[in-house]
Amino acid sequence: MADTDMHNIAKLVTRETCRVLQNLLPTIGGADWWKTCVVAKLSYQQQERVERSKISSLDKLDLAALARILDKNWHEVSDKAGFPQDARTLVRELQNIRNRMAHNDAGEIPLQDQYRDLDTIHRYLSLLGSDPDALGQVDAARRNILQRMAAPPPAGSPPPTNPPQPDKPGP
User: Do 124 and 91 form a contact (C-beta atoms < 8 A)?
Assistant: First the structure.
């Protein structure tokens, strides 16, 4: 998938996460919600950035910070929004996807991993109640990856290698 596609999807996920947190955190934390539900849940480095840059609204935070805020407020947010407790796994997978995107020095991510990431993102956005256009954008990217996975390799390319299988126990 092109970097611009994934960048656009990351922006979409950031926007949708921000939307949900903006709706829920003030009702969870009351008048002091910014301090108790946002700043107190950030890492030390994120807190320093918020203070140094005088950030005072969720829409100025990046996906790493928003995902952390959602994860650290999970029980209260999931109770308020009616999310199933096991959906927290999606938030944690999203954090891993974001970290892989931000720190990928190895180059192209394998198609199977790209598909899995997009599937997780689609499930996450569905959980958040994202609009059909947002889900459609992720769906289109998933279909594109599936087509690329199903396409025959270009002529002259080496045959695909099978991943190593774990040793099977003997009879």
Answer: yes
